[in-house]
Amino acid sequence: MKKIIFLYSGEGTSNRESSFKLLQHSNYWPEIGSILNSKLNLSLEEIWKNEIGKHRCPYSPLLTVVSQICLSDIWTQWGYEPDVVVGHSIGELSAAYQSGLYSLEEILLITFQLGEIASELEGVMLHGDLSDQQIDQLPVNLSSLNFKKGARKHVTLEI
Fold it and tell me: Which fold has domain 5-119?
């Protein structure tokens, strides 16, 4: 028996080309907009238009989770129900919501609070393909080895 897995990524999967028209087909789009407006005095469509693809806090985590919740709803409308949900980084919040651990309002407020906290932190993360020799010469911390690409490694660095 095949299992259906919903996998939720961290930030960085949206860009200026991402269309909120697809997400508006989700039954959750109006409810999310209402929650953001009433609890945080935010306009979902304005945040989307002004912040999508900029990857800055506090909005990027929120837009990532909103996108994932809406896409999950669309997949469900198409007949796909997950047997398992998995999340990486901010996607863990989407997985927590999908699994029923938090209500929609709770997960949106938690996500925005996390984004606000992150906006006060200093530092930068970069990613790219490097050789072992280049990695050894880095004056910064290696955060993760994402995957190997031939003789090179795709890594994330904390600066």
Answer: Malonyl-Coenzyme A Acyl Carrier Protein; domain 2 (3.40.366)
